Rieske [2Fe-2S] domain-containing protein (Streptomyces atratus), 105 residues
Amino acid sequence: MAFVKACALSELEDDTPKRVELDGVPVSVVRTEGEVYAINDICSHANVSLSEGEVEDCMIECWLHGSSFDLRTGKPSGLPATRPVPVYPVKIEGDDVLVSVTQES
């Protein structure tokens, strides 16, 4: 599993998603409830950026239709989304937030 730097930890504001692109994959990095999460930035219901939505209770909401996704699992909490979005492993090294968007073979 290859980890790459997504951003600096000091750049993240609590409950404010930060959009980054890692190896061509759009990712939303979120610090909430004392943890840092990385989730695919594209809603599984509509092709819109999740990082433009709000974060509450470890969920990120799609601003367009209101579906929310669990930052830990990627599972939607309800309609209209029915499919989960990918989540990615995160490591913190110093002030670096490292994310792996590669899948092990």
About this structure: The chain has a mean pLDDT of 94. The beta strands are 4-8, 18-22, 25-32, 35-40, 55-56, 59-61, 68-70, 87-88, 90-93, 96-99. The chain is about 0% helix and 40% strand.
